[in-house]
């Protein structure tokens, strides 16, 4: 087929046809990059992208209920697929477009590929101002879609139909880049979507984007090996890059060869099985005693695929050894250089393999490895203790997590995002395989849970998916229950109702603010603390179980641990998404372990409890380091 042959298509038709022909390949496995397109149609996309999707039925369109939710679903799908596949998402102009911005930020922060196709105002401008158009008196080029720029790894607007010939390949370069991926936004003026152009046929040929396993500099590997040999207390911090690069076996082999223990970030949890004797579990603010004790003493930190968020570093207080050094393995140079590290810029799997070869028979001091194994065992005993709590009259969050983890499907994938649940899960969830723990904690976005669970189930329909969500987050974005039922993707949603914002209530109390503004209750009686317990607090007459039924879910209402376990078994045999509703105690929490998080306290206040919290804050703030 010669390159001068053309086909006449609208720009929207050409975009859809191009997306159909994009594939990724890694380690010999080739697959389509796009699994289809989520969308809600409006006047900004119905006549363009909508018409194009209609005439290309083999590029599957999925109807959703909320634009933010569909981007969450796409990002969760991409995460489950180790960033080798994703969805496109299309919206109308105006609020349909801006609804996607929150989830776009989450995708970019979490380094997950999603393609956003928001409708835009007329390129020809003569019909302006359009319905929902933002007018800006200093330029006619600006629309609300410009708000996507800071949350996108690539952004473009097509004012002529032929512009896609250069822009779409560039968008694919970013989407398939292990280092640069995130949200890609292509703003589509609604008039240009419908314009026709004679596109070269070769533009629609099958394209395979080969995902490389880049190797670091050989000299850097030698220097890193020298640093490890001289370290007395080395510690690995395993991040999401371990899982995305499918390096879990390489990490396990490295740990067993060297005797170096490993802690795990939120995104990296599952890098080692929970019962591996050198798996210290979660590290940082939401970390275990095992990981955090070792972190405070570590003289060398080996970061693998982590971006060192404040939760991982405990606001730069976790690593306290006077001359602690860092070796960072990361595909992104930006992350590899953090903390004045020796950077190993490369794929996690091959870098660990090459570093292991360079180390030969070197092992960490046996006394140090033995201490790590002892701390591991002590932490597992602590998890057993929390799992065994039988709080009355309402169960604690820790015992609910234990019931799901120990009595639920051992191969299930657990999905969560925000509130107090992620902190407790990071500590307590016993991961048995790399994909069992799925959290959005880069953006910690309330409302991600159910939409994200749908994306995970679409990526792994053969697995049970448990969505753990609190009442506050459920109320923000529950409507993709409908989409899960419509498309036949059965979820098990455990809805924990504590009548308020439990996480921020606890944080508020720790800051001396009595949980102000965090209860779902009628105004407090005079003299009653903002987040008080007991019969004096009158909660709102809200029936979340009935709400879930109204969305089409099968609902099981539980009281206590035993009924929850029975409900989990029943949900597995349900023919549609099941919501298990259970109330839990908002005051019984899981403690912190050898860690701290920087949340500034008011420097002056008329409230004594705030002043006391400020004194403690200043003591901890002094421990923050500049590495």
Strand fraction equals 15-25%
What class, by secondary structure content?
alpha/beta
- If you average the pLDDT, what whole number results? 95
List low-confidence stretches: none
Radius of gyration: 25 Å
Shape: globular
Q: How many beta-strand segments?
A: 23
Terminal Cα separation, in Å? 58 Å
What's the CATH first level of the largest domain? Alpha Beta
User: How many domains make up the coordinates?
Assistant: 3
- Enumerate the strands of the largest sheet in spatial order, edge to edge or round the barrel: 5-4-6-7-9-8
Helix content: 25-40%
Annotated CATH architecture of the largest domain = 3-Layer(aba) Sandwich
CATH homologous superfamily grouping of the largest domain:
Thiamin diphosphate (ThDP)-binding fold, Pyr/PP domains
CATH fold group of the largest domain: Rossmann fold
- Number of DSSP helical runs: 24
Largest sheet: 6 strands, parallel
Describe the protein in words:
The chain has 627 residues and is of the alpha/beta class. It has three domains: 6-210, 3-Layer(aba) Sandwich (Rossmann fold); 218-380, TPP-binding domain (Rossmann fold, 3-Layer(aba) Sandwich), CATH 3.40.50; 390-499 and 540-583, Rossmann fold. It contains 24 helices and 23 strands. Helix 16 (397-407) crosses helix 17 and helix 16 runs parallel beside helix 23 (561-572). The radius of gyration is 25 Å and the shape is globular.
């Amino acid at each position: 087929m010669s390159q001068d042959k053309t086909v006449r298509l609208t720009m929207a038709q050409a975009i859809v046809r191009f997306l159909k022909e994009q594939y990724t390949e890694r380690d010999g496995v080739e697959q389509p990059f796009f699994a289809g397109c989520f969308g809600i149609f409006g006047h900004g996309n119905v006549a363009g992208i909508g018409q194009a999707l209609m005439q290309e039925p083999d590029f599957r369109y999925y109807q959703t209920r909320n634009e933010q939710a569909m981007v969450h679903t796409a990002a969760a799908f991409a995460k489950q697929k180790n960033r080798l596949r994703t969805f496109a998402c299309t919206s109308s102009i105006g609020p349909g477009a801006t609804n996607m911005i929150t989830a776009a930020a989450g995708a970019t922060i979490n380094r997950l590929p999603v393609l956003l196709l928001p409708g835009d105002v007329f390129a020809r401008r003569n019909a302006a101002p359009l319905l929902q158009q933002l007018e800006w008196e200093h330029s006619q080029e600006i629309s609300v879609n410009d708000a996507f720029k800071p949350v996108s790894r690539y952004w473009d607007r097509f004012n002529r139909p032929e512009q896609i010939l250069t822009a779409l390949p560039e968008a694919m370069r970013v989407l398939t880049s292990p280092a640069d991926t995130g949200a890609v936004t292509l703003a589509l003026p609604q008039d240009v979507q419908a314009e026709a152009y004679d596109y070269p046929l070769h533009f629609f040929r099958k394209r395979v984007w080969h995902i490389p396993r880049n190797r670091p500099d050989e000299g850097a590997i030698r220097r890193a090996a020298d640093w490890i040999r001289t370290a007395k207390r080395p510690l690995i911090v395993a991040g999401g890059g371990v899982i995305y690069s499918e390096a879990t076996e390489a990490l396990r082999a490295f740990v067993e060869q060297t005797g170096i223990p490993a802690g795990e970030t939120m995104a990296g949890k599952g890098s080692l099985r929970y019962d591996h004797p050198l798996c210290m579990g979660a590290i940082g603010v939401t970390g275990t005693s095992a990981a955090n004790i070792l972190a405070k003493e570590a003289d060398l930190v080996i970061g693998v695929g982590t971006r060192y968020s404040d939760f991982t570093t405990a606001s730069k207080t976790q690593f306290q050894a006077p001359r602690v050094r860092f070796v960072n393995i990361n595909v992104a140079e930006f992350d590899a250089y953090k903390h004045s590290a020796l950077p190993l810029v490369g794929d996690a799997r091959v870098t660990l393999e090459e570093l292991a070869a360079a180390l030969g028979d070197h092992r960490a001091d046996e006394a140090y490895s033995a201490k790590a194994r002892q701390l591991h065992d002590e932490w597992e005993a602590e998890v057993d203790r929390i799992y065994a709590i039988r709080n009355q009259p309402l169960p604690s969050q820790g015992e609910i997590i234990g019931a799901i983890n120990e009595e639920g499907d051992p191969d299930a994938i657990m999905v969560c995002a925000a509130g107090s649940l992620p902190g407790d899960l990071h500590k307590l969830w016993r991961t048995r395989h790399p994909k069992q723990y799925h959290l959005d904690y880069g953006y910690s976005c309330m409302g991600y849970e159910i939409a994200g669970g749908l994306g995970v189930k679409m990526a792994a329909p053969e697995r049970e998916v448990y969505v753990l969500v609190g009442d506050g987050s459920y109320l923000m974005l529950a409507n993709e229950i409908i989409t899960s039922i419509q498309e036949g993707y059965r979820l098990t949603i455990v809805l924990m109702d504590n009548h308020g914002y439990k996480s921020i209530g606890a944080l508020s109390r720790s800051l001396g603010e009595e949980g102000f503004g965090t209860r779902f209750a009628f105004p407090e009686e005079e003299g009653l603390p903002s987040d008080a317990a007991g019969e004096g607090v009158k909660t709102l007459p809200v029936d979340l179980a009935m709400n879930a039924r109204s969305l089409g879910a099968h609902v099981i209402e539980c009281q206590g641990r035993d009924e929850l376990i029975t409900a989990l078994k029943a949900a597995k045999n349900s023919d549609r998404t099941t919501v298990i509703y259970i109330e839990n105690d908002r005051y019984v929490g899981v403690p912190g372990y050898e860690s701290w998080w920087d949340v500034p306290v008011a420097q002056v206040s008329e409230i004594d409890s705030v002043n006391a919290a400020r004194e403690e804050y200043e003591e901890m703030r002094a421990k923050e380091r500049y590495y």
